[in-house]
Specification:
Elements (H helix, E strand, L loop, with lengths): L7 H13 L9 E8 L4 E8 L11 E6 L2 H17 L7 E5 L4 H5 L13 H19 L2 E10 L1 H12 L6 E5 L5 H13 L7 E7 L3 H18 L3 E7 L8 H13 L14 H15 L7 H13 L3 H14 L4 H13 L3 H18 L4 H12 L2
Parallel strand pairs: 3-4, 3-5, 5-6, 6-7, 7-8
Antiparallel strand pairs: 1-2, 2-4
Helix pairs in contact: 1-10, 2-8, 5-6, 6-7, 10-11, 10-12, 11-12, 12-13, 13-14
Length: 380
């Protein structure tokens, strides 16, 4: 796509929106699954929100699991899209777990004031033995799992971290009700919490909710003291927010916190592809998942060379993108543009034609652009 006069950040955004605009016939980003749970003895419903390039790539993706999924799916998937399109976090799969009895499922012990409470052990068994294995079998997951819980869901997060710490790699605890059952989770953390085998990421927030503060302050101190460097932990008081508004801001800020080393520094777009590949290799090691240099980043580097009229470097870079992402119409269009600028209309036409063919096959939203480019260079 043409982007000659754009600054680097704008190029990156333009290219990313071009890539994510693609659609494939019969592919729906939102899917639903049901699990007949033998552990819970009931049917459980999940909504799955897939990355837009899921149908085209062979990539594997981190997974964000949402407790109270019906309440959080829309804003959480929107935050994931917004951040990933800008290269701030990776593309992720979002799984909304719909409630049956949240009091039962999220509470680690029974209390008389809540007749159905005390079912967290069974619900955790459902997650670890039924839901997560099913998702890993049915979808291309990367083995990096994030759990979000709000209020009582945050109580369950504290319980999960103690009972089965290897199930999730990162946590977003939103106004967690850790004062439940006389600070049960806080007290158990004080007794049992120890450094984790693998690094955990824990982002905890609270609004202007005074009755939460004492338990959260104590839990924060325990986490820092007992888990130490094995957890990247952050506790944020959002004093201008309330119990209903903290989830929206927590997802956005929390995902940025978890993946704070993901984004390619802007100055590296002035480097070469080897240096950029090295950045994503380091990211792979940090998060324990295989991370390929994104198509949009390679394209942005190619357009940098195109702007400075380093046509050989631009062509070589776009060729690499074609090799790595042969199913994308956009990479052929970009290579065609480099050839056109280098005064090679025949090679440009070949690549524009490939972009058109793939665009027609994929239902690409930028098909009209590809056709315009092909028509223009064909006249030459």
């Amino acid at each position: 796509m043409k982007a000659h006069r754009l600054l680097v950040p704008a190029i990156l955004f333009l290219l990313s929106t071009a890539i994510y605009a693609q659609k494939k016939e019969g592919f729906s980003r939102t899917q639903t699954i049901k699990i007949e749970s033998s552990i819970l003895n009931e049917t459980r419903n999940m909504s799955i929100y897939l990355p837009d390039d899921y149908a085209y790539s062979e990539a594997k993706y981190p997974v964000l699991y949402l407790l109270d999924g019906g309440a959080h799916l829309q804003h959480a998937s929107g935050a994931a899209d917004y951040l990933s399109i800008r290269g701030i976090i990776p593309d992720i799969i979002v799984v909304a777990i719909h409630n049956v009895d949240r009091t039962r499922d999220f509470s680690p012990v029974h209390v008389e004031s809540a007749p159905t409470s005390g079912g967290a052990e069974k619900f955790l068994g459902f997650l670890s033995k039924e839901l997560v294995p099913k998702l890993e079998k049915a979808y291309r997951t990367a083995g990096f799992n994030i759990l979000l819980g709000h209020s009582f869901g945050g109580t369950f997060i504290g319980y999960t971290l103690l009972a089965e710490p290897d199930l999730f790699d990162a946590y977003l605890a939103v106004s967690p009700a850790l004062m439940f059952a006389n600070n049960f989770v806080v007290n158990k953390a004080s007794e049992k919490l120890k450094p984790f085998k693998d690094t955990k990421y824990f982002y905890m927030t609270v609004g202007n909710e005074e009755r939460y503060f004492e338990a959260l302050e104590e839990y924060s101190s325990i986490m820092t003291e007992k888990a130490g460097e094995s957890v990247e932990f952050k506790y944020v008081k959002m004093m201008e927010e309330n119990h209903g508004t903290t989830p929206y801001l927590t997802v956005f800020s929390g995902l940025k916190f978890i993946f704070k080393q993901w984004q390619l520094p802007q100055e590296m777009l002035q480097a070469d592809l080897d240096a950029i590949d090295d950045h994503y290799l380091k990211v792979s090691k940090k998060y324990g998942i295989e991370v390929a240099t994104p198509e949009l980043v390679i394209n942005a580097l190619g357009y940098n060379y195109l702007q400075t009229k380093e046509y050989e470097k631009a062509i070589a870079t776009f060729k690499t993108n074609v090799e790595r992402y042969p199913g994308s119409a956009n990479v052929y269009d970009s290579l065609g543009e480099a050839y056109e600028n280098d005064g090679k209309p025949d090679q440009a036409a070949q690549n524009y034609q490939k972009a058109v063919s793939l665009g027609e096959k994929n239902g690409d939203a930028n098909l009209a652009v590809y056709k315009t480019n092909l028509e223009r260079v064909s006249k030459k």
